[in-house]
Amino acid sequence: MTANQPRTHQDQRSLPGEAARALALLRPLAAKYRLWFGGGILALIGVDLCQLLIPRVIKLSIDGLGSGTSSHQTLLRWGLVIIALAIGVAVFRFLWRNLILSFSRFMERDLRELLFGHLLTLDRPFFQRRTTGELMALATNDLASVQLALGMGVISLVDAIIMTGAVVMFMAYISPKLTLIALSPLPLLAVLTKVLSSRLHKRFAMVQETFSQLTELARSTINAMRLIKIYTREADQTTRFDQLGQVYIGQAMKVAAIQGLLFPVSGLVANVSLLLVVIVGGRMAINGVITIGDFVAFISYLFLLVWPMMAIGWVANLFQRGVTSLSRIQAILDERPAFAVSGAGLIPDQPVSSIELNSLDFSYPGQETPVLRAVSLTLGPGLFGLVGPTGSGKSTLCHLLARQYSVPEGTIRVNGRELNEIDLAWYRRSVAYAPQEPFLFADTIAANIAFGRPSATTAEIEAVARAVGIHGEIAQFTDGYASRIGEKGVKLSGGQRQRISLARALLTRAPVLIIDDGLSAVDAGTERHILAAIAEYARDAIVVMASHRLAQLAGARTVAVLEAGRVTGLGSHQQLVAGNSYYQTIHRKQAVDAAKGPSHGA
Questions:
Q1: Cα–Cα distance between 263 and 133 in angstroms, integer?
Q2: Which secondary-structure segment (H or E) carries 582?
Q3: SS3 432
Q4: Greatest CA separation found in the chain?
Q5: Is-same-fold flag (27-333; 434-509)?
Q6: What is 355-430+513-602's CATH number, 3.30.70.1050, 3.90.1300.10, 3.40.50.300, 3.40.50.720?
Q7: HSE on the CB side for 325, CA within 13 Å?
Q8: Is 370 helix (H, G, I), strand (E, B) or coil?
């Protein structure tokens, strides 16, 4: 997909439909801050009333001068009134800016929290469809557009409506005929605004989509910086970033071209109105149809009307950007996790003690070929091994046992109960998971180990670190367990990252522990130490270990051999060595490799 072909489905929706959905999303949030919003609107009305009274005062003072009834004291009083009104404008303007802009910031915060909270409810398939850069763009650029629409956009819209209505009434009070002449160019402005706004919506959707791609490219490049330098791909990445940046700039310039038309067109229409008033109104004043004061007041009111007329284009721009961004956010909020849990979810009385797989078939979303085929296994306390060639389904089975994907009804039972009936959060709290490629936060070593159990004491953290053979290495860091390890544990070796991940899993004391080739980067000596700790853990828990090293599975009660998604062997290490062809082949090869010399992990 190119940058010119956004993934969003906004083009297929009508603009009124999107606006309605946007309002539906904002309505419950806005209700929380209705006092801020209402106070801001009242202050805005106060500003407009003060501004509307100033031309009236000017009219009275000029008419008094024309009739000779004004004195120095009268002019001084009118001057003091104008100063008081100007002070009122300043005070009310300060109030509405604080109240309404605070309202927009509160709304932005709540929308961000709503989006973030919803993302935490979504499952693995969603994050395989959506890039991190796209989600980051939603939480930054798109939310900024929504905030601007809710802040200055709302202010400008309300101000334009109030000011236009009041100004037209004051103008009509002076001369209905002249008012109709002044407003005659407005239909042209309405038509042009509608046409340009429609184009703006489509182009801005493309801009936001490209910005998502640009953000994702920057994120992935920074995360892969070591790999890029190893393969000397800096120039290529710079070229890719520049090309996507050029596409983004090109699309942004198209948006700017429309924005650049909206404001001048509004200004042109306003100036045409002013020209008509000067020509027609001037003649009316000369002929005595209206007074000079009326004419000056009418011109002053028309100047007050110029801003609402020019604001139409700007407001249309802000709201189109806001609606486009809000619809992108709404598309994420419309996503639902794939897991089907009956009712509120059953919470068993006892911890997980048995897991049964009955003819389990599984295909990844969007794929037709099954990854697992008719898998039937029974898991109980103790160490259960999984072995098989790459692509045999070991990791997939681990993912399903960790409840990262939905499973067909009746294929997995926990403690004798259907898995899909069990509360999802309860089950996930019952499972600790140590993958081959662990994720570590840019935090301290202690915080990473205690992530699954933040209440753990220092002694407990050190105990699991000793169990996985990394305590001594941590002690060599300048700050020990308080050392920060960089993004994704960049300061650590692969073996260190795996052992911290395993320590994190052990610390949770979960009744189910899944280790998906989580010792692949550990040397043989440390491996034996860790296996002893895992064997101790497995006395009271279900431990599932997927591995390519048969030595890691030698102490397992049962080992399952997976080939092409099917269980082709099941038994103890000794039984499989004696009776399973795949297991025999791997065992002989690894025995020869071990005889040649010790392996070395990272």
A1: 33
A2: helix 581-596
A3: strand
A4: 122
A5: no
A6: 3.40.50.300
A7: 31
A8: coil
For 430-463, what is each residue's pLDDT tens digit? 999 998 888 888 889 999 999 999 999 999 999 9
Alpha helices (H) along 13-71: 15-31, 34-67
Count of C-beta atoms within a 10 Å radius of residue 571: 17
Residue range 540-556, pLDDT digits in tens:
999 999 998 898 999 89
At 213 the three-state DSSP class reads: helix
Per residue in 52-105, pLDDT (tens digit) is 777 777 766 776 666 666 667 777 877 888 888 889 888 988 988 888 888 989
| pLDDT attached to residue 383 | 95
DSSP string, 143-175: HHHHHHIIIIIHHHHHHHHHHHHHHHHHHHHH-
CA atoms within 13 A on the CB side of 134: 18
Task: Please give the pLDDT value at position 45.
Answer: 86
> Is the Cα torsion angle 39, 41, 45, 51 positive or negative in sign?
positive
Residue-level length of the chain = 602
Residue pair 196/204 in contact (Cβ under 8 Å)? The answer is: no
User: C-alpha distances in angstroms, 302 versus 75, 89, 189, 310?
Assistant: 24, 18, 16, 12
Residue 155's contacts (CB-CB under 8 Å, 6 or more residues apart) are 40, 44, 96, 100
β-strand pairing of 542-546 with 512-516: parallel
For residue 289, what pLDDT is reported? 83
Q: How far apart are CA 334 and CA 235, in angstroms?
A: 40
Q: Looking up tokens 């991940």, which residue turns up?
A: 501
Strands 382-387 and 412-414: unpaired
pLDDT value at position 464?
A: 94
pLDDT at 213: 83
Distance of CA 130 to the CA centre of its chain: 10
> Can you name the CATH fold of 434-509?
Rossmann fold (3.40.50)
Task: Say whether 372 sits in a helix, a strand or coil.
Answer: strand
Superfamily of domain 27-333: ABC transporter type 1, transmembrane domain (1.20.1560.10)
Residue spans of the chain under pLDDT 50: 1-13, 342, 599-602
Rounded CA-CA distance 445/439 in Å is 12
Locate 219 and state its tokens.
């994120």
- Residue pair 113/57 in contact (Cβ under 8 Å)? The answer is no
Q: Name every residue whose Cβ is closer than 8 Å to that of residue 426 and which is 6 or more positions away in sequence.
A: 345, 347, 348
**Contact, 272 vs 185, CB < 8 A?**
yes
Domain ranges of the chain: 27-333, 355-430+513-602, 434-509
Would you call 486 helix, strand, or coil by DSSP?
Answer: coil
Q: What is the pLDDT of residue 197?
A: 66
- The crossing angle, in degrees rounded to 10, of helices 292-333 and 186-223 is 40
Residue 228 burial (CB < 10 Å; 0-12/13-18/19+)?
middle
CA distances from 130 to 123, 136, 435 (A): 11, 11, 22
Q: Which DSSP symbol is given to 140? A: I
The H or E element containing residue 497 is helix 494-507
**How many CB atoms neighbour CB 321 within 10 A?**
25
Of residues 243, 157, 232, the one with CA closest to residue 193: 157
pLDDT at position 495 is 87
